[in-house]
Write a structure and sequence with these properties.
By secondary structure, this protein is α/β, with parallel strands linked by helices. The protein has three domains: about 5-230, Aminohydrolase, N-terminal nucleophile (Ntn) domain (Glutamine Phosphoribosylpyrophosphate, subunit 1, domain 1, 4-Layer Sandwich); about 245-435, Rossmann fold; about 440-595, Glucose-6-phosphate isomerase like protein, domain 1 (Rossmann fold), CATH 3.40.50. Helices cover about 30% and strands about 25% of the residues. The strands form five sheets. Strands 3-2-4-1-10-9-11-14 form an eight-stranded antiparallel β-sheet, covered by helices on one side. Helix 8 runs parallel beside helix 12 (about 385-405). The chain binds 5-amino-5-deoxy-1-O-phosphono-D-mannitol.
Length: about 600
Amino acid sequence: MCGIMAVKGVGAVNGVYEGLKNLEYRGYDSAGIAIKDCNGIKAFKSIGYISELEKTGVLDCSGGIAIGHTRWATHGGVTIENCHPHCSEDKKIWVVHNGIIENHKLLRSDVLAGVVFYGETDTEVIPKLIEQYYTGDVWQAFRSAIDKLNGSYAIVMMCEYDDKVYFARKSSPLVIGKGNGFVVSSDVNGLIDCSEKCVIEDNTLGYIDNNLHIYDKNTNKININWIAMDERSIEADKGGNEHFMIKEINEIPRALQSTYNSFLKSEVVLPDNISNVLLVGCGTSYHSCLMGKSYIERVAGIKSECVIASEFIYSNYIVREGTVGIFVSQSGETADTLSAIHKAKELGIYCIAITNVRESSITRICDSVLYIDVGVEVCVASTKAYTSQVLMLMLLSDVIARNLKCEGTCKEDVLGCNCGNCLEIRANEYNDLFNLDIKSYLSKVRGVSEEIVKKDKLHLIGKAVDYITALEGALKIKEVSYIFTDAYPSGELKHGTLSLIEEGSIVIAIATQGGILLDKSKNAIHEICARGGKCIIISQFPEEEFNEVIWCNDGKRCVKRGEYIPLPNLNSLLMPIVSIIPIDLIAYTVSVMKGYNPDKPRNLAKSVTVE
Ligand code: M6R
């Protein structure tokens, strides 16, 4: 949610611009850069994607310091006035900010009464406060202003009074890189050409002159821990693909292999006597939690519950003895999830994080961390992270099972254990997963997408874990194609939703569960087809299995009311990982057919760092 950048050193303007392009997934309503040269500070702003900034001539300018911002609007519309960087009344102090200043209205009417504001953002109070407190000592004025702020922030400031870059962090991520000069960024993707990085701790502030200086709120100096940059954290290009979304879907098999390897190397620490598992996340990560619950209950046989992070924060959650919390977040920076962890910790819950991003905030506040290690996920719509989160949760369910029942006897053998309680998946079955042929879906997906693109609503159904896949598929399709899409358990259709089905309705039916569940899924498919709807069936069972339910008499003749997308026939525990892939591909294809950019859906951002 908003990307902030600053560069102090040679090539500052270009460095900020290129860094912002790498942070664009954090927000893309508008963007701006302010540049300091020997004549003072000037700013360039534009509405829309970062590339629009080029048209302002910003890249023709140079300066020793530049700060920049890509915005996801929270306060005030998408206008040039509300676009960052924001400045003091005398235009000598410039600030970029990510987060929310909760007391900005009070500050405007109290400390800043009489000050003229040009926009509606909460951020604008920051440079105005610094200006108010400035009496010759910038550092003192900066600290006084920060002291006044309530809420969450990552702030970068520069001014005409000195050549320093000032920063502060509270509940919003900030990282500093060192190369030829210094780079400040919302996340490591902005640290281009840096050899080392330093993750800024929460509730700290500081400045950069020729060195980096960090202090806590009581102005005690904090030791600086430079870490060598990890090459993989900055590999954010499309690799010849038209969009990141398709690149990332194609990467799913490799990502799954990487997650599996990461699991093998991990040393997750579990408390003794777990009797209940609480899983918390948002959006796609919440859907992973739902899958995690089903694995933990099936494999480890213990009670699990899932709560959406933003609901957990304000719930009256009753903790039972032996509760372990699993918090899932691709970015590791989602504000709702971080707040939920703080609450869980207050309740005395042992917290395990599942994340993709090393050194992200979640890794610092949880007791134990598992990395899915899928490489950078740039597209706002999460694809490869979801499938890997599900795999990691499945593997974790095995660890929990062994902890509870195997007393450590089979800890080394994760590829199939014969104690009767753990995952029964053989090495070759994992290999099938790591060698999935994504391209094999493409022609079928194209055909069904051509029909879906004409619709303004779409339904997804499934039973048991297939219902969770339906929820995730519905989120993906609505997120990037803007078609109203909803998901229901197959058995619920007849309790209400069936009234929406009419001639030409399209329903995606996921049917990977065998036995009685397959029979029940077929019943639901028939209920739809008999009412003129068309089902797109995603299943590993042979197409013939569904013939009896998709062929219907329309009064004159027998018509086929179904399409079939075949899945590979893998171990039933692995089916939720493969069944989402054709739906991700449908979401992508429909979005592109409609002329949208699936990587940057309207009104959204990749990293949701505000509650
Ligand atoms: O980084 P996180 O996993 O915590 O993000 C949570 C959600 O914001 C995220 O999964 C969102 O729902 C995706 N855009 C869905 O594709």
